[in-house]
Amino acid sequence: MNILLITLLACLVVALPSASAQKVKWCVKSQNEMKKCQHLETKSSELECHLKSSVTECMTSIKTGDADAITVDGEHVYLAGLINYDLHPIIAENNKAVCSYAVAVVKSDTDFSINDLKGKTSCHSCYQSPGGWNIPIGRLVAQNKLPWDGPDDMPLEKAVSQFFLSSCIPGISKALYPHLCQACQGDCSCSQNEKYSGDEGALQCLKSGHGQVAFMCQDGIPSSERQNYQLLCMDGSRKSVEEYKDCYLAKEPHHAVITRKDADSQHIYKVLKQILASDLFSSAAFGGKDLMFSDATTELIELPKSMDSFLYQREDYYEAMRALKAGNPPAPRQDGKIEWCTISHAEQQKCDNLQIPSMECRRASSVEECIKKIMRKEADALAVDGGEVYIAGKCGLVPVMVEQSNQQSCNDGGEASSYFVVAVVRKGSGVTWNTLKGRKSCHTGLNRNAGWKVPDSAICGKTPDCTLYNFFSKGCAPGADPQSNMCELCKGSGKVVGDESKCKASSGEIYYGYDGAFRCLAEKTGEVAFIKHTIVGDYTDGKGPDWAKDLKSEDFELICPESPDTTVKHTEFGKCNLAKVPAHAVITREDARKDVVNILKQAQVNKLFKSEGERNLLFSDTTKCLQETTQTLKEFLTKNYIDMIERTYETGQGEPGIQCIYDFLQYLMNSSFIAMSCCFRLTK
């Protein structure tokens, strides 16, 4: 009986469709969209259409797994990212029809600012449009310029009618809010029946004197008339219309395909790409406009896997959408407290045990997740290496304190700490820079400064198709793909079987971090270790832990491009290194700088730099003090270091499959796209 059952199950498994034939269940919200979707079904056997009554019903369906994807506008990208849906954008439309810059336009001969709008008359392109309502009203509420305590207090439309003396907001209910249609010259609809409808109408409303400010999209102002108008900036200043890139309310994000976070986003993208030639962006034949996708779309662009609603929309737009739903934000925190972001159980435990007044501890899964939390104001700070400082800087965060490993510099306020990245080999091994290819390597961790980014730049540079994966025969780079050659040499926690720590980017992996990479070399597992220049001296001649007690510093040497055929003493790192890089730094938002610095200065008398049980928790164990820095990101990282980092992104060799800064985001940023997303890398 059991044999028969097993045989039957095996047949069923064979009969199941393969993973490659997995259906993408597309959610449509009208009969016209259903017609178009069914037409596209004939072009791809992997597309399946599901009809729902609305966008929100589609989002619920995607959350439960009854559907997989839908294209939505910026407002719904915001809603999709909320906890009740927990969806995220995976593909973006490149669509020139979006309102790239929503602006507040006034006549040049007036003298009021955006802080003086109460009691003024207003013109809007259209109710609930990005440029005419969502962005301007959301931003005014988010910045506390338009008072509204939320929907429980009164409808937003009523708050707007109490704020402006009169308005023309085409599309709003004239019966419910006649005050908001008072300045209109027609039926107050978003149609040709209303003279002041659309961007052209809003500008005409302003021009004719029926309004004192027009909320619209920047490109709706004819170039021949721009000298007659100015823009109101959010900081209270005014600028010429030509300076709209420095004086706008917010940018409308491009429409995006959203799905569940556990969905196969690559498969969805692949299916869409396969049917692109089948009029994916044309709707006329199906009796509608912008069906499934915007008709003005020219291409679909796959987004980084780490993308979420907040990153996709940028802070300004995200806050505008939040304010539209919830009202004025709470007053800024005045208690001077901060929340430190931790990335492991051990770090959380140390952070809690420090019991630092005014500092609470907030757990995240990774440095990148911490950066996101800091951006969202869900956390305030953490210490990261130079490569991560660079990424954080792209996200608008700033370095405020630097780890200093030299006590004398702590005492006399010497220059900020930095270190040399070196390639260490065992004396007499025969390994030189010129014979490095095909060797076994030891790295502090994937994407870490000394262990990965710097050697990647030094070894591969601009060499096509070169990666550390294919340059070395095998290695240990904790955090790499467990199935890759860069996890082959990792040791894990030392367990014989069932070791979940193997190749993990945490101290549970014996070969993780500076000391771990050196141990990998010292135990003859690897033939070269990429580490900080002080490690050899700190872990030899009786100064290291038990595993290093018999190591002699004279048994280790350095190799470098400057001495390609020879080795040099480990003390000659000044002339034989791969790069000089900035020390680890504490990153935060500019608005939290003062509190973070004050609390860390007071906390240094605590056991801030001592780790129990595991290594380098919260800060590097070798840190003697934290020094405040007021340098800009470029000053702190230095031009040479930034050039090196960007060179790895430019060639796509910094990390497998990653071309975030150049191949992906530079193009998008130049097309007024989601510049905020430049802070995160495409994952493998």
Automatic annotation (TrEMBL):
Binding site for Fe(3+) 2: Y514
Disulfide bonds: C27-C58, C37-C49, C123-C205, C168-C184, C181-C188, C233-C247, C341-C370, C351-C361, C442-C520, C476-C490, C487-C503, C560-C576
Pfam family, one: Transferrin
Role according to the record: Transferrins are iron binding transport proteins which bind Fe(3+) ion in association with the binding of an anion, usually bicarbonate.
Subunit structure: Monomer.
GO CC list: early endosome; extracellular space; plasma membrane; recycling endosome
Keywords linked to the UniProt accession: Disulfide bond, Ion transport, Iron, Iron transport, Metal-binding, Repeat, Secreted, Signal, Transport
Signal sequence segment: 1-21
Source taxon at top rank: Eukaryota
A single BP term in Gene Ontology: antibacterial humoral response
PANTHER family: SEROTRANSFERRIN, TRANSFERRIN
Positions of the Transferrin-like domain: 24-326, 338-646
Keyword ATP-binding: no
Principal location class: secreted
Record SMART domains: TR_FER (SM00094)
GO molecular function, one term: metal ion binding
Protein name: Serotransferrin
Record-listed Fe(3+) 1 binding positions: D73, H255, D385, Y419, H584
InterPro entries according to UniProt: Transferrin (IPR016357), Transferrin-like_dom (IPR001156), Transferrin_Fe_BS (IPR018195)
Record-listed hydrogencarbonate binding positions: G132, T444, R448, A450, G451
